[in-house]
Amino acid sequence: MDRADLAHRYRHILAPEDRARLPLYAALVDELATRDVALELLDDALERHQNPTLILAIAHFLALEGHPTLGPLYEAVRQGVAVAPATFASSVCDVLENDPEAFRRELHRSTQTNEPNRSAVLSKVIADVAATHRWSTITLIDVGCSMGLNLFPDLVTVRAVDDGRDATLVTECRSGDEQPTPVPRVARRIGIDIQPLSIHR
Fold this sequence. Notes:
Shape: elongated
Structural class: mainly alpha
Distance between the termini: 27 Å
Number of helices: 9
Helix content: 40-55%
Strand order of the largest sheet: 1-4
Largest sheet: 2 strands, parallel
């Protein structure tokens, strides 16, 4: 893949509304597009994973793993500390250039960008449709299921506000004051995905 195409991928990974909403990432992808090491890393990824979100995810992963520069930087952002977009971008890119092998070691990974909270919406839809048709048992088929979260609406606790009660998983569903309809019994769960996520990687 040529350099111009790789740079284009970085610059255009964010939609205009996302650039306005995520100024730190907007500055970062623009800076990545100018760095040779960033272009080489993206080119070295498996062809089906040559998406700039992989490089962004690796940077975040390294931060969560306690990288001495990225860890404090991302924690400051998480805590709401004001970080200038240009400072954020140059800091991440400097780490990438000084230690590209830390990024290269994670290039075997792939990203999954589905929004987990969509499961709350799907749970409500499934429950309402089943109630309308008076179905007590259903079969779920999820195409593009990835890690299969949407195949378990009956095991997901959905409430407007987490009230602190114990649950296996809690997710928000902004549906006003409507009362949730119980999901019927799930007899079969079928997930179809060409690249299912593994919990072992």
